[in-house]
């Protein structure tokens, strides 16, 4: 009879229960067995907790974050290269394409004309120079942001909106200073619309170097006399524009990340923490959530800095049109106001949104995924 009762009791036990012997007594004890999911979760948590906080100033972290940033920039720029070509032509008021500016149909017609005149490769005109510039630019930008954050934001309590804004702004200024000449060359290549007799990279560099220095005063330094300063044409508005653009971009992305990782949304927006993730890292966002965060970041930052971007483009191509006179910021502003009024500062903003939103979304997504894969 006792054996019958024991057997019937065992039949009612959950399938994940083991019967084990208590070495201290002759009685049997019942102990639930961990499911594979809970065991994996506990093992992952223990592995993450056992890792020491990473040293963001180490060579290992520097090269990993640099590679992640560079790849993010290349991926983002490649998917929007055709739109970037058209936007530059609109912003710089190209005589051949000015008639298309201001409408979605105009964007399509401009791309169609480029395709007819130059073939499919025309839509990627200047893209090789873009990639040559964007890898170091994005690598420096993301790397600088991580390094500056580590200095300014030393604890979660100090992670304020202002500190995030300052970190992003300084990172943007750092990256643009080192890569601006490549940006100028890229814009010049993209601005050309001739089917025959296209300028080579060497020709463009020689042309920029030898352009008129009128309008820059009587600087006596060798750098201005040599023409090297021409490679920084439009650098001042770029520098000014980068402060709000990069700062607002990183601030918005990080703030959106906090919102999407909040307790009510986290079950739907976050992924399990990888086993190789540093303990201080936040849970990664799902793909759609990361893309959403980056897209909103791109829209907000583009709006805040677009007028300065228009001024910069006009100054960059100033030597390629007219008499080569290098205009100051105030002169460029006056010309834009005279030609199109206040709306002239927002020419191409619509296509700017179409380009920047997916570009920034892909950039942050690629960067975060590479960080996860590289274990930083």
TrEMBL record:
Subcellular location(s) per record: Mitochondrion inner membrane
Predominant place of localization: mitochondrion
Region of interest called Disordered, as start-end residue ranges on this chain: 14-51
Membrane topology field: Multi-pass membrane protein
Annotated Polar residues bias: 14-44
Organism superkingdom: Eukaryota
The family this protein is said to belong to: Belongs to the mitochondrial carrier (TC 2.A.29) family.
Full protein name: Mitochondrial thiamine pyrophosphate carrier 1
Gene name, Swiss-Prot/TrEMBL: LEU5
């Amino acid at each position: 009879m006792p054996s019958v009762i024991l057997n019937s009791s065992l039949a009612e036990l959950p399938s994940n229960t083991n019967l084990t012997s208590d070495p201290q007594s002759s009685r049997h004890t019942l102990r639930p067995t961990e499911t594979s999911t809970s065991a994996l979760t506990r093992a992952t948590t223990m592995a993450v907790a056992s890792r020491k906080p990473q040293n963001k100033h180490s060579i290992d972290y520097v090269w990993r974050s640099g590679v992640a940033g560079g790849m993010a920039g290349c991926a983002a720029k490649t998917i929007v290269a055709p739109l970037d070509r058209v936007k530059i032509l609109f912003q710089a008021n190209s005589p051949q394409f000015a008639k298309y500016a201001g409408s979605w149909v105009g964007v399509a017609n401009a791309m169609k004309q480029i395709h007819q005149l130059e073939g499919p490769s025309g839509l990627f005109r200047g893209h090789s120079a873009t990639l040559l510039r964007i890898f170091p630019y994005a690598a420096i930008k993301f790397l600088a942001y991580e390094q500056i954050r580590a200095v300014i934001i030393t604890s979660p309590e100090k992670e304020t909106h202002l500190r995030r804004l300052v970190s992003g702004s300084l990172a943007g200024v750092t990256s643009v200073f080192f890569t601006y000449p490549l940006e100028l060359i890229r814009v010049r290549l993209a601005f050309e619309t001739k089917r025959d007799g296209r300028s080579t990279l060497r020709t463009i560099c020689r042309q920029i170097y030898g352009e008129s220095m009128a309008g820059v005063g009587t600087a006596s330094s060798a750098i201005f006399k040599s023409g090297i300063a021409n490679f920084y044409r439009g650098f001042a508005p770029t520098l000014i524009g980068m402060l709000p653009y990069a700062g607002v971009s990183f601030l918005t992305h990080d703030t959106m990340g906090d919102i999407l990782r909040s307790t009510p949304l986290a079950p739907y927006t976050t992924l399990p923490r990888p086993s190789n993730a540093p303990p201080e890292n936040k849970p990664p966002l799902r793909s759609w959530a990361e893309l959403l965060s980056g897209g909103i970041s791109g829209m907000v930052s583009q709006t805040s800095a677009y007028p300065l971007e228009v001024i910069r483009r006009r100054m960059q191509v100033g030597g390629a049109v007219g008499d080569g006179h290098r205009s100051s910021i105030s002169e460029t502003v006056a010309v834009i106001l005279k030609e199109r009024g206040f709306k002239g500062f927002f020419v191409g903003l619509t296509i700017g949104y179409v380009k920047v939103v997916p570009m920034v979304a892909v950039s942050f997504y690629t960067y975060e995924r590479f960080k996860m894969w590289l274990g930083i």
